[in-house]
Amino acid sequence: LSMWGMESVANVLESYRGRDRLVRTVCYSSRLLGGLLTAPGGGHPELGRRLLLVAQELSNCRAALRLFDDLSMYLYSRGYGLGGTEEDAIVRLLSITGNVADQLYYPCEHLAWAADYGILNINSDKWWTLSNSLWSLSLALGALRSFRVVQLLKTELKGSQNKAYLKTEESNNMSRRAYQIRMRVETLNIISCLADLANAVHWMPPGVLWAGRFPEWLVGLMGTVSSVIGLYQMACGSCGTKDP
């Protein structure tokens, strides 16, 4: 790695969110490669099993660290409030509902985690299903919100082009670039949410859509796509999705 590259990685690792995103990427990449190696014809099943074990341990690590995320989620939700700064009522409603789902997700997952480790004498499956359902809802709402924002941006961009004669060419080009950058961010967020949503449905109880039907490599692929987008968003200074 070059000095610039090492400094960039170090800067990411210094923050909790950056470290979590990097660990998430390694986790799902290990699952992708491990799934491919253990699949029929993969050729290296023992190496694949080791990579899947690494992925599982990293996933457990992230779940333990999320025990401390409730307060930061609450402060984020309180800061957003009822979305007074949002001009569009649909975007506001989707955002508020998504924040509620995220806030409820964490305590449900904590209870499931505590049950798995024998700290609480309760049925962990029920709480895992509930937390996964809340995560799925949050992802679906996030995708819908970004889709709505893209539609609004297209309308605004078309309107700005119709009024281009009122602006200088330079200011009009800057405005168009700003819209395009925002549209790219929201489009990537849609892809990220849908990739995670595919996995979330896979982890639902049997009988729900494609629950339980994904091979390990496909779970790893969906998670890797979402994780790489998250790293890219962080590098660009844009706001990514909340991603268990």
TrEMBL record:
GO biological process, one term: peroxisome fission
One GO location term (cellular component): peroxisomal membrane
Entries under Pfam families matching the protein: PEX11 (PF05648)
Record flagged with keyword Translocase: no
Keywords, comma-separated and alphabetical: Membrane, Peroxisome
Keyword Ribonucleoprotein: no
Name used for this protein in its record: Peroxisomal membrane protein 11C
Compartment(s) of residence: Peroxisome membrane
Signal peptide: none
InterPro entries recorded: PEX11 (IPR008733), PEX11C_met (IPR026510)
